[in-house]
Fold this sequence. Notes:
heterodimer; A: alpha+beta; 5-stranded mixed beta sheet; 3-stranded antiparallel beta sheet; 11 helices; 8% strand; B: 119 residues; Arc Repressor Mutant, subunit A; 5 helices
Amino acid sequence: xxxxxxxxxxxxxxxxxxxxxxxxxxxxxxxxxxxxxxxxxxxxxxxxxxxxxxxxxxxxxxxxxxxxxxxxxxxxxxxxxxxxxxxxxxxxxxxxxxxxxxxxxxxxxxxxxxxxxxxxxxxxxxxxxxxxxxxxxxxxxxxxxxxxxxxxxxxxxxxxxxxxxxxxxxxxxxxxxxxxxxxxxxxxxxxxxxxxxxxxxxxxxxxxxxxxxxxxxxxxxxxxxxxxxxxxxxxxxxxxxxxxxxxxxxxxxxxxxxxxxxxxxxxxxxxxxxxxxxxxxxxxxxxxxxxxxxxxxxxxxxxxxxxxxxxxxxxxxxxxxxxxxxxxxxxxxxxxxxxxxxxxxxxxxxxxxxxxxxxxxxxxxxxxxxxxxxxxxxxxxxxxxxxxxxxxxxxxxxxxxxxxxxxxxxxxxxxxxxxxxxxxxxxxxxxxxxxxxxxxxxxxxxxxxxxxxxxxxxxxxxxxxxxxxxxxxxxxxxxxxxxxxxxxxxxxxxxxx
Amino acid sequence: xxxxxxxxxxxxxxxxxxxxxxxxxxxxxxxxxxxxxxxxxxxxxxxxxxxxxxxxxxxxxxxxxxxxxxxxxxxxxxxxxxxxxxxxxxxxxxxxxxxxxxxxxxxxxxxxxxxxxxx
Lengths: 497, 119
């Protein structure tokens, strides 16, 4: 049996040991508690930061969503409108803070993609529309030319005034239809549809006026020194351009007012100057017209308005393809002045009027008083019988000018050259100069052509009788003297001997 | 005659008269003879009228011939000529009536007469 002290000792030692252990435990617990508190604080801090960041992200997300909504609702519609109408502005970012951010780049890329796709599609649709129209206009134009030929033949066939009147009217209507079809076709990329021969510029301009309603208001004045002609391939293009500019002039001026056309010859080319005295065009209209006619950009049908105004666009296409120049400006008279400049080097030539007479309707050039010499100028007098018999000109004729000359060679004036032959010694002058040909002087009427106006001398019947008797006797004696073996001639036969 | 007859016309006929085909006088015929009046050409003459007067300066021509020279339809030339006649620049004369067929008897008598002249 153990004693109480021993038991007490045991208890005490056990208690001490427990205390020691407990103390150690306490220490550890305290340390852990400290560490936990630190971690807690860090975690709380982190949590707060996360919450803050979350809010920020949320706001950002909402802003981005708003930006995307803005893109879909405003910017893309703006863009599509602006592609059709370049003056419409496209709105920018809704929130300026996105500028130059990743979002901005992405959205811009979207807009670029859309722009490209829309443009491509528009070009494709426009090309399809142009192809359709081109096909239609080409066929219709060919038919209208056949109609023109038929009408022209009928005009020559029927003299009856009322029939002729209707035929002329139908012909005019046909010309107007042709003009519209031709311009539309040219805008759609078709060729002018007709190749003519080298044609006089004056004739070409007069022909161009005939395609328009109100042609009687057009006054053409011809200031050309030489019978300048446009080479075959450019005749119809220049005619179309002149027609469209004239149509603009007639359209923008009052029905009572004239439209004056002046043909002017320069050093290196010829100009057709069209002046109207109408209401004129605004600066932006002129700018638009010049942009269309500069021929620098492709034309789209959708840009021409509804109904499409094809005139300037057609002129622009032709300017680009054939290399003449068109200029439109406000004229000092208040109206519009349009100038078509045709460079002499590839596009002009000079024709011989006696070989290829000018149309009778072409305006006569104004000659200086020295050339007139009291008689009318011999413009296109090749059809009259006189000049064939009396080519007494001192100037060489350019007979070899019919073929479209790739480079227009100027003809040196050589007064000693016999007329009626092309001048072989044609020395090319300054490069790009207009070909020159001396105008033939008006042909004088040969005298022997006028026996009909000679008065018949009066004879008495006796005189007549004696003359006839002498003739008869002479005939008889001549026959008697002739060789007998010859077969007898009829009384009307001419004695040879 | 010239190569351009094959080409398509550049200037239509109606331009000469402004679309009119009814002459101011209906006495003109294809065979009407036209004489020019000696009058200096004035500036108000249109080119085609000037050409007609030029054509007629050497002497008379029939209307059909004038039309052929100008390469215009006869109906249009009639209008132009009628205007010129109205302006006093042209004289128009009715066509010479178609010559009658010669009477054979008359011809024989003329022949007889000629033969008798010899004696």
